Amino acid sequence: xxxxxxxxxxxxxxxxxxxxxxxxxxxxxxxxxxxxxxxxxxxxxxxxxxxxxxxxxxxxxxxxxxxxxxxxxxxxxxxxxxxxxxxxxxxxxxxxxxxxxxxxxxxxxxxxxxxxxxxxxxxxxxxxxxxxxxxxxxxxxxxxxxxxxxxxxxxxxxxxxxxxxxxxxxxxxxxxxxxxxxxxxxxxxxxxxxxxxxxxxxxxxxxxxxxxxxxxxxxxxxxxxxxxxxxxxxxxxxxxxxxxxxxxxxxxxxxxxxxxxxxxxxxxxxxxxxxxxxxxxxxxxxxxxxxxxxxxxxxxxxxxxxxxxxxxxxxxxxxxxxxxxxxxxxxxxxxxxxxxxxxxxxxxxxxxxxxxxxxxxxxxxxxxxxxxxxxxxxxxxxxx
Length: 384
Description:
Elements lengths: L44 H22 L4 H11 L3 H28 L2 E2 L2 H17 L5 H13 L4 H33 L8 H27 L6 H25 L7 H19 L6 H12 L10 H13 L4 H17 L2 H9 L9 E2 L18
Antiparallel strand pairs: 1-2
Helix pairs in contact: 2-12, 3-4, 3-6, 3-9, 3-12, 4-5, 4-13, 5-6, 6-7, 6-8, 6-9, 6-10, 7-8, 9-10, 9-12, 10-11, 11-12
């Protein structure tokens, strides 16, 4: 946390996540030069991209071959042939907005740490992180590792890089839980869908939000109680509560300052859900917007399973679309289209970005953080 003698720190290395003076401090994580760390492995990454795209192509071929013999598949194939390409183009544009929302969050949290990045570099790091999350069977750990590594390579020390990533995750997933609560309660009030897919997940979401808010003080106490642990492994584990607390503090500060970047987390989920909505329209269905949003959000829970490419999400999306009354043929095509646009379309540029994740941008800059208003000062490069 904050050094006990801040006046002796070199300029620009002050703690970018200010805390209350009487708050307990967690142990410092040793932070050697970024060059000492290796980039996340990209071995077999392109192979995973090809496998994922190939799997979708095989499914389409199977549908085509079996269509004349199975009424359900024949109807599905007819919908493919009559799909509206305009809505598919809309889906691709919406996915671009989704990524823009994540980049907005990434820039805000990195900037608060004093790291100013060109816009292209921000997009490259985000694409790499999302590719690692969706293509590697690590249940999200790949994205965390790649983003942390990229921040290290651009000049942040280990502690601040980890806290920055923690803040990004907090913003993104607080919105995820909040949207489930809002959509679930709205659908319950309007009588759409069964309680098991409306009010129940909404209630669980509210409970999680309450636990997160009330657990902040416990997290700070835990950070203080583990700050004096001895041993390499013990110190590493002891640093986790403090890092999480730093991330939560950053989010609460952005909220207090009414930083619009907070809404980037909502844009990430809503625009991606809108891809599913556009896909339904492309194949002839016009479902309720709230139904689609809730089906998408609950379907995304399957992404917690460590399956390469998030292939379990297709099944989750398909099941939830049918549960909300979308015809089976449209549900199959819409779920596959959504995953094709959101996962496999960005997969190739994401894999390229991940392969080059260890290459720092020459235009990136780590600037001093103003200890009075806790904001970076100095000019920002053309971007962030």
